[in-house]
Design goal:
389 residues, six-stranded antiparallel beta sheet, six-stranded parallel beta sheet, alpha/beta, single chain, 12 strands
Length: 389
């Protein structure tokens, strides 16, 4: 809880800090990497630093957390924190690293707010930081404790590599050593760490896209020509190679029960829906499932065959498809929930580009779906923090 002393100071300075937070984030990362360049080897994404998305995510998370405290000083934004905590756990973030972040973040704050900062302002925002940090450390203990091992990374062998649609690739992995394997939940992701040609290791998170009931890991990744990891996976990693993979994480998972489901996805965002569908098939579930997917054209749908086969195997499943270049009875253009008869009491799962998820979430809310029954997964830095919590 935010103290009575800090609350009015944070409330009064939040507009200014929020306005300058992007500059603070940029300043912070400059200081952090100047002092600890090793953090760019296997932890922070160079691509996300270069395109500014990591800075935006940091700024959004701190400002979003502070804004929540101002409006609700006795509670925390649990959904936002849980999402961040699972991403942190997938990277092996340790509690002591929050001390390192604090040092350089508050050096950046002092620098960027040098014209207005006082000891009272510094103390108030320090309290905000440590409330957030301690909350994350506490939450991260849960995902860590749920694993069958305490290793942030273990070696996995690529046993199969298959094209998926026109721009994606599906990788099937098996354990390459005797590290105990944690069974994943449908919808969870793993971090994958590969070495680039310049010797630096880089990490990306990929949602598991097939069964999670075995000791195999299956993920599907779209080629990003401007990225660093997917080009290596697509062009360099071959069957027989070994890569580093984290334990499974993520809190956007299939909940137990018999309530109806709406799986709304676009593009490569179909991967968690594919994993959920495969799990339902394995369970011989008779749940009502409305599968909504949007794609540019049929050929690009990365998991078309797998998802169609699983939908066909589920008595309660129905598919609605949107294509920008429609064929075969698909809806033309972009997905919309308007005019659809959503199952009563359904839980909605979203995954895809950020504008897509914002639009579909808004339409789901307008259709009467409570916010707590709308779940979404974000690939890469979460630039939606605070706006949909």
């Amino acid at each position: 809880m935010l103290s009575d002393q800090s609350l009015p100071i944070v409330e009064a300075t939040l507009p200014l800090v929020g306005e300058r937070m992007p500059g603070i984030a940029k300043n912070f990362y400059g200081r952090l990497f100047a002092a600890h360049p090793e953090l760019l080897d296997g932890l922070f994404s160079r691509s996300n630093q270069k395109n500014g998305s990591q800075q935006q995510a940091l700024a959004g998370s701190v400002a979003g957390f502070a804004a929540h405290l101002v409006k609700n000083p006795d509670t925390y934004p649990e959904v936002m924190l849980s999402r961040i905590a699972h991403k942190h756990a997938s990277l092996g973030i340790a509690p002591e690293q929050y001390d390192v972040v604090y040092k350089y973040l508050f050096e950046a704050i002092a620098d960027e707010l040098s014209d207005v900062i006082t000891s009272e302002i510094a103390d108030a925002w320090s309290e905000v930081y440590w409330l957030m940090a301690h909350a994350l450390i506490k939450i991260e203990k849960g995902p860590y404790a749920a694993q069958a091992n305490d290793r942030p990374w273990s070696p996995w062998a690529v046993v199969d590599k298959q094209p998926a649609g026109t721009a994606a690739m599906t990788f099937t992995l098996e354990p390459a050593d005797d590290t105990p394997v944690t069974l994943a939940k449908p919808g969870q992701f793993v971090s994958v760490r590969v070495q680039l040609p310049d010797g630096i290791r880089q990490v990306r998170q990929y949602t598991l896209s097939a069964e999670t009931s075995s000791h195999r890991r299956v993920f599907t990744t779209k080629l990003d020509d401007n990225g660093e990891v997917s080009p290596v996976l697509h062009s360099t990693i071959a069957v027989g190679d070994t890569i580093e993979v984290s334990n499974p994480y993520g809190d956007v998972t299939l909940a137990d029960g018999e309530t109806p489901l709406v799986l709304a996805t676009a593009g490569i965002g179909c991967t968690p829906a594919a994993s959920i569908l495969r799990s339902l098939v394995e369970q011989r579930s008779d749940r009502e499932v409305l599968v909504l997917h949007a794609e540019r054209n049929m050929e690009q749908w990365a998991l078309k065959d797998q998802m169609n086969a699983d939908i066909e195997a589920l008595a309660g499943a129905e598919l609605r498809l949107w294509l920008e270049n429609p064929t075969g009875g698909a809806h033309p253009g972009f997905m919309s929930l308007k005019g659809l008869d959503l199952p009563e009491g359904a839980s909605v799962y979203l995954c895809g580009p950020l504008p897509f998820m914002k639009n579909i979430r808004a339409e789901a809310l307008a259709a009467g779906v409570p916010a707590e029954r709308i779940h979404y997964e974000v690939f890469g830095p979460d630039l939606w923090i605070g706006s949909a919590n």
